[in-house]
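Researcher: I'm preparing a figure for a lab meeting and need a structural model of a single chain. I don't have an experimental structure, so a prediction will have to do for now. The sequence is pasted below. Please return the structure as tokens so I can convert it later.
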Amino acid sequence: MNNDASKKIAYNVGGTVIGALLAAPAIFGIVRVQSSASMPQTNDQVINYNS
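Model: Understood. Here is the structure written out token by token.
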């Protein structure tokens, strides 16, 4: 019974590590694209609430 419990913990930890390793490049890729200077975020529209 103790072996099954430790096996379950090992699978949970291993799955978490593998998931984090798979997610990290995707997250950093999104951040790099968002902060990239090739697509500057511009705000050209002025909202006038007094009209």
